[in-house]
Amino acid sequence: MLKMKGFTLIDVIVGTALMLIIFLGIFGAYQLGLKVVSQSRTRITATAIANQKIEEIRNLSYKEVGTTPHLVDEPEGDIPQSKTVSQNNINYTVETTIKYINDCFDGPRSAECPEAPEVDDCVKDYKRTKVKVSWATPFEGEVDLITDVAPENLNQEVEECTGAAAGVLSVSVFDAEGKPVPLPLIAIIDPDTGNTLTTAQPATGEYNFVLSSTTYKVEITKSGYSSNQTYREGDIYNGKTIAEPVKSHPSVYEGKLTEVGFSIDRVSSMSVQTRGTKGQGYPVIHNVTFKMEGAKTVGNDGQGAPIYKYSQISTTNGPGEINISNLEWDSYSFYVNSPDYDLIDIESPPGTATTQPIDLLPNSTKEVRLILKAENTLLVRVQDVSTTLPIFGASVRLSYNSLEYQYDETQPTDEEGKTFFIPLEEVTYDLEVRADGYNIYTGTVLVSGDTTPENNPNANILLTPSS
Fold first, then answer.
1. pLDDT, tens digit (0-9, with 9 covering 90-100), for 394-431
2. How many other CB atoms are there within 10 angstroms of residue 2's CB atom?
3. Which of 131, 199, 328, 423 could make an S-S bridge to 226, C-beta 3.0–4.6 Å?
């Protein structure tokens, strides 16, 4: 007997379920493929919209980069914070956010930037722009692009902080080696009134002043340092009128950066001696007037002649010496304008012949010996008659009186018992010598050429102790 087999209800249900799973998987894969293609196409379009927005922002002036509406701490501009753009029947929402960024590199100092300036007058260093493009259909998504917009110069940055258009005067102060001078006092002065408008004492030796458009005088000072400043035509310096300044007053222009630099350094000193020649034993020459002049200038006068920053007339004291302090590093020359004697040589240090000018470094001391020569001189030596030891501090008076020529000079003897008279005429002088504990000496001495105890016994005075 033939038996027939068929599908049971369970077989049908299981088969149907399997076929449903297969077809649902195929449909899901197809649907996912459609979503991926759609999202990719939509994302490409959104990225293009975002890039276009970024390029629009980059083409704006720095001042115009801002949104409307905006928060108090955000830049103001005409870029809408949110707008809708339609592309390929899809609505895209474009959201723009612009914020100020404070870069600690230029201050204020922090753990992140330990070498930055302590303060920053304007913390709105640049603007960070974020453009977000989002969409809801056919599938939800978004694209974010971020770019930084920096000011072209310091003026644009400052204008964001002050709200007013101005110029920037950048002042830098450095030493003789070109290194920054810490904490110089920089003064900005009205050149017409002489009033100080503002000052700064930057730790880095450089400071940026935000100023209105005009011309300013700048002065640089620091305790223990030389000074520097700007000048303008017509300024008076040491009694001379400056026609062409070396460093003119800087002018500040709206929206521009003006940079000026100044050099200062620690002051130095110089000890200047006036002596006779080496052959005479370098005798002291008293009360010599000389001019000392540096090489640096502040400008030229109306005839084009230089006006030197340092040009002073000095006179040596009783010991034939003068200490000149607060000198700027420079190269100095010496002049003795006298019809009576000539500057024939210079030694620096004493005993070492050198040539002019003489360089003086910052924070140093230099000894200079000026060697003078006259047609007629007298070197007097005073000794104890018994011991022939020199008598220090004896008072030597040399005099001559006639209708044509008068001379009367009193000088003390040095540790070697010597004193030097210069310049003199070729005549016979009266000589009087006094010293404590000794009898007064009186006599005469003929002066002709370089008169010394070696070539004229009357120049060698022997005093007798008083009883």
1. 999 999 999 899 999 999 998 999 999 999 999 999 99
2. 3
3. 328
